[in-house]
Amino acid sequence: MSKHPKIAVFGGGSWATAIVKMLCENLDEVGWYLRSQSAIDYIKENEHNPNYLSSAEFDVNKLLLSSDINETVSYADILIFAIPSAFIKTELDLITVDFSSKIIFSAIKGIIPESGLIVGEHFNQKLNIPFSNIGVISGPCHAEEVAMERLSYLTISCRDLDKAELMSNYLSSHYIKTKTSDDIIGIEYAAMLKNIFAIAAGIAHGLGYGDNFQAVLMSNSIREMKRFIKKRHKMKRNINNSAYLGDLLVTGYSIFSRNRMFGNMIGKGYTVKSAMMEMSMVAEGYYASKSAYLLNEENPANTPIINAVYAILYQNKNPKKIFKKLTELVD
Amino acid sequence: MSKHPKIAVFGGGSWATAIVKMLCENLDEVGWYLRSQSAIDYIKENEHNPNYLSSAEFDVNKLLLSSDINETVSYADILIFAIPSAFIKTELDLITVDFSSKIIFSAIKGIIPESGLIVGEHFNQKLNIPFSNIGVISGPCHAEEVAMERLSYLTISCRDLDKAELMSNYLSSHYIKTKTSDDIIGIEYAAMLKNIFAIAAGIAHGLGYGDNFQAVLMSNSIREMKRFIKKRHKMKRNINNSAYLGDLLVTGYSIFSRNRMFGNMIGKGYTVKSAMMEMSMVAEGYYASKSAYLLNEENPANTPIINAVYAILYQNKNPKKIFKKLTELVD
């Protein structure tokens, strides 16, 4: 890798846009792959993303925009993927150039449905990237607040801490503070699980449970997260660090969270299908709850909240009854 | 103690009123001391508290109301105190009858300013009640949601777990679930510290920090709470249980919390005095931050958030500057 590695971001959503903005604070050139050529044309002309985070303005001279994923992969030494997990496989399949020696950072929350793997494991097992070249960028961080340059903290993880440090330096600025970690597996699972717990929080709200119960639910969620992650990848970690508990709270307590909103509709009586249609998008926690449920069957941790969400979303169980049972299982 | 001990609640505020309501679900007779005779007359006539939690209705035939604290102390075997910590000493000083053999439960959050002790310690050290006869009732629990009969969870702690169990049974109902604990010291400190962290959350909000920072602040708050309590009373406890983390979250994330509201005004530029006058009441976290700061000087834990709140409230330091420094100390 050269002294000044080239960096590119893959994705056109709000989180991808936020990461490009962070990088532009420190770099003179940032590669940016967006699937949509019309979005690229719009950015070039209007200096902001037409669809997401439109308040984030760019110096377009710094951007190497492309709708050809192979072009952007070839350009960069470090690839940051920020494409929703439900669509990442489709995009990766488009890559024909060899990228096995590149450094991969994932800013994706969730499990890749096709492989049932978290992103780091997918890159490692399916694409032969060594774990020393795989990193994760995680919050707690609403992209919208990055656009407003409100102080936010990121945790950058990689088993090779030098690479985590390198990425930290590229992302840090007057409104972004970073810390590093070597727990990429645990942090990825946390990012995925928090969306399930946010759905649970939404369902509870939709069913009429109040703030007292929400606090109990969140307190049980972090304990459940700890148990689940420990079963998957045992190592010393403080589950109350920002990348785990902070990330759970920013999602679980945000009325803007799509996962919480989705749960809220389910709690209010929408079917899964009608809630999805109404939102015209799919909440990531929907996929995550299935993946987590299935993963947990192998070597089960006690996961009453995940089980409840799974039963409601995938087994057509009555939310009111399932939550009534859940209230006996939390404390 | 008889097979059917008599129970009385001391206090006229919303939390006292909520506890009387819970007890009335299970008992035929509940003693209730309120300082104000006119409030008592009002309750007798209108079946609800005139000043607090007026939506909670009572079967007044069950209530043994009195504005004579000695009368109520003499009546009961189990005394539940739910008077704000800033005023409890004044009330206790009115008691002339011997109550050293009674069981005391504290539903008070905070430190008794005159002694600098948490309530359990005060009853033990100043009033010679053995710890086996001292218990604590804690949330996460907004009294308002009890009035609405929204599902809430309480933790009842006592070193004599039989007494914790006894009180649990008196408080449990279709909307109240309980668990027991023997960590009365840790739980009391948690209840006190959460108010300081809620003030910090309010200050951050008032200064314009967003949800991303709030999540980091709460994640750091629970770690700080763990460190602080461990220094005061080391024992095995899961700080993520509802009585600690849940209680922190229900206060820190509630826009209705007086402590958060107080902090918010400070963050927006009010002086401490003008914020207090504007609220026409004193937030408990105001006293707690001084007590916690002084306590921590003896055998210090790392407490950047408590120190920041103390500096702002008691040393007249600039909130913006102090929080700017604080952002470097949290992660």
UniProtKB/TrEMBL annotation, chains A, B:
GO molecular function annotation? glycerol-3-phosphate dehydrogenase (NADP+) activity; NAD binding
**Residues the record lists as binding NAD(+):** F87, A143, R258
Q: Which SUPFAM superfamilies match?
A: 6-phosphogluconate dehydrogenase C-terminal domain-like (SSF48179), NAD(P)-binding Rossmann-fold domains (SSF51735)
Active site positions, chain numbering: K194
Give the UniProt record's GO annotations in the biological process aspect.
carbohydrate metabolic process; glycerol-3-phosphate catabolic process; phospholipid biosynthetic process
List the GO cellular component terms: cytosol
InterPro entries referenced in this protein's UniProt entry, alphabetically: 6-PGluconate_DH-like_C_sf (IPR008927), 6PGD_dom2 (IPR013328), G3P_DH_NAD-dep (IPR006168), G3P_DH_NAD-dep_C (IPR006109), G3P_DH_NAD-dep_N (IPR011128), NAD(P)-bd_dom_sf (IPR036291)
Q: Which UniProt keywords apply?
A: Lipid biosynthesis, Lipid metabolism, NAD, Oxidoreductase, Phospholipid biosynthesis, Phospholipid metabolism
Which intervals hold domain Glycerol-3-phosphate dehydrogenase NAD-dependent C-terminal? Answer: 183-323
Catalyzed reactions: sn-glycerol 3-phosphate + NADP(+) = dihydroxyacetone phosphate + NADPH + H(+)
Q: What is its EC number?
A: 1.1.1.94
Highest taxon of source: Bacteria
Q: Which residues bind substrate?
A: K109, R258, N259
The UniProt record lists the Glycerol-3-phosphate dehydrogenase NAD-dependent N-terminal domain at: 6-162
- Decide whether keyword Oxidoreductase is in the record: yes
Task: Indicate the family of this protein.
Answer: Belongs to the NAD-dependent glycerol-3-phosphate dehydrogenase family.
Name this polypeptide is given: Glycerol-3-phosphate dehydrogenase
Which source organism? Lutibacter agarilyticus
